[in-house]
Design goal:
Elements (H helix, E strand, L loop, with lengths): L2 H8 L6 H7 L11 H22 L5 H12 L1 H10 L10 H5 L6 H19 L1 H11 L1 H6 L9 H10 L7 E8 L6 E8 L4 E7 L2 H18 L1
Antiparallel strand pairs: 1-2, 2-3
Helix pairs in contact: 2-7, 3-4, 3-7, 3-8, 5-7, 7-8, 10-11
Length: about 220
């Protein structure tokens, strides 16, 4: 664990290092773990991101702001930030999770990052937590285009099908490739009514499902 480097990247040095240790402890490691902190961190993140969007996009309406916020607080966005922080290098995981590549699993990294936000809040208050989140989200906000679609592929595909009164797609696991510490999942998106089947790959089943849905949307929009 390289906690000094992590704290430097966060821009916050903990007065109570035990809070940071707890935030970095997965339930597979033991107690106390970061599940309760994750719950709190999720709320803090939503509040700070809402404030940032409210201040940045004065012309947007509530629904548009909500869609943008959803794109910024979902697992994919948190996973990206956690990777930039090398958060996985500092996680405390049980032996099983270590062997199965838990330090690179998107869900574990995203949850731990939310727990870290809560730990900063408990250590130094809301202004400190806001400063950390604002700092980490600078590059994400810089790339944000409020006019671009913000719905994830699975949601967009579901709405496309519902708008045409078609049944929802089925997602089927096709294969799991690679060693346990670096698995790649293959998932098929099957739309029986249209005779369409597309396959996506990803580092998690969820990511593979999203990719297969995106591939399905691409084909449908060409027709």
């Amino acid at each position: 664990m390289n906690l000094p480097r992590l704290q430097a990247s966060l821009g916050h040095v903990f007065s109570d290092p035990a809070l940071l240790n707890e935030a970095l402890t997965h339930r597979s490691y033991g107690l106390p773990n970061n599940e309760r902190l994750e719950f709190l961190g999720d709320s803090i993140l939503n509040c700070v991101v809402s404030m940032a969007l409210f201040e940045r996009f004065g012309e947007l309406r509530e629904g548009e702001l909500s869609r943008l916020r959803a794109s910024l607080v979902r697992q994919e966005a948190l996973h990206r930030i956690a990777l930039d922080l090398h958060l996985g290098d500092s996680l405390r995981l049980g032996e099983g999770e270590l062997k199965s590549g838990g330090a690179r699993r998107p869900s574990i990294l995203a949850d731990a990052l939310e727990a870290v936000f809560a730990a900063v809040f408990l250590d130094a208050g809301f202004p400190a937590a806001k400063a950390v989140i604002d700092r980490l989200y600078v590059p994400v906000l810089a790339e944000l285009d409020p006019k671009a679609p913000t719905k994830d592929p699975k949601t967009a595909l579901q709405e496309w099908l519902q708008g045409r009164k078609l049944n929802l797609p089925q997602y089927q696991m096709v294969n799991v490739l690679g060693e346990a510490h670096a698995q790649v999942f293959e998932v098929a998106c099957v739309i029986d009514a249209l005779g369409l089947r597309t396959v996506g790959r990803g580092a998690s089943r969820r990511a593979a499902e999203q990719q297969s849905a995106a591939n399905a949307l691409t084909q449908l929009r060409k027709k």
